[in-house]
Hints:
Elements: H1 2-33, H2 41-63, H3 65-71, H4 77-96, H5 101-104, H6 106-114, H7 117-136, H8 144-239, H9 243-269, H10 281-296, E1 299-305, H11 313-334, E2 338-346, E3 349-356, H12 377-386, E4 390-395, E5 401-408
Parallel strand pairs: 1-2
Antiparallel strand pairs: 2-3, 3-5, 4-5
Amino acid sequence: MAEDDGRIDRRWEQLHTWVPYGFLGISVVLGIATADPQTGPATWYTAWALVGAALVLQLWWHGTRSRRLDRGRTPTPAGTAYYVVRWALAFVLTWLSPFFAFYAASGYMDADELLPRRWRRLGLLASAVTVAGAQTGGMPFRSAVQWVVFTVLLVANSVLQVGIAHLTEQEKLRSAERTETIAALRQALDENAALHAQLLVQAREAGVADERRRLAAEIHDTIAQGLAGIIAQLQVVTNTPDPDQAREHVGRALALARHSLGEARRSVHNLAPVALEHDGLPEALQKTVTEWGERTGTRAEFTVTGTAAQLHEEIAATLLRIVQEALSNTARHARASRVGVTLSYLGEEVILDIRDDGTGFDLLAVPARSRAGGFGLDGMRARAERIAGTLTVESEPGLGTALSARVPLVRDDR
């Protein structure tokens, strides 16, 4: 759009530069062709002197073109002087030959750029006087009829030019307003882009903080407890003289070490959803549920309903994290014999349901979020809310637990 505006401005500048030359040339040709053979030498000398002055004036004005372009299209004292002198030359030339009205009509084109606003209509009126006088048959007028015709033509020319000037001025004002509006919109878009980038940075920082809290909880609940158990078993070994009892506790320590190593690997593995690198969310969840069931010895089933869609990577990663966290909690606390995970695609949203037949718990008795930010249910709920979703929990002591995460179905646009 800026390139088109620049092209239009250049064409207008060329028009304002060369049209006076063209009008002056047409006036000279027609004036010579229709000149009275009985015209005296003095009139010819005067006419040619005025034409030469008009040509010199145009060449001078053309020579200042580069300086005028640097200042923009604003009226200047030099422009006002150029307009007045050109009008005077055109008026006298029209007195000698009515066909110089073509040259006088140049004043209609550039009054808005050459004259200050308070003198603009006066300049148009002066040009209209010259043109109307030529249209009447040339000056001076020799009859009352010519004066009447001149008056009618002057009014018509003035009304027409003033009306066109008014419309042009209004269009310029509207164009300036549109330009300001577009500039304001661009600024707003830039601000929105900056805000969006800031929100993305904050979301990433929140994600990093969430992963740190999750990893801290994993280390506290699994690895740290495993290491504490290993230390306790080894302390028994160092304090007992019975070899059999020592071997038993060493075996327990080895089992705890292997379990803690497995938990450490799982925690590191869960830092990034590598399960989604080569598989879609349904396949990744199927593998996650199956491996968890084999590892814990719990009957675990996974079901997909609806038409599967390729979800945005953030949506898919969040749902996978929620399932991993829920299964981890089930293994540690629920003592369930059966777990079911269902992924449902329902139009504009995706629903993830996780159910177990474990011990359940009292929702009102869940401890408040800790200073570290809370883990388990709080962590899963925070994950869902970060992608404009929700997490609901239903549980009663002895009746198992049901979790349901509802998130928007945002497709992967890659």
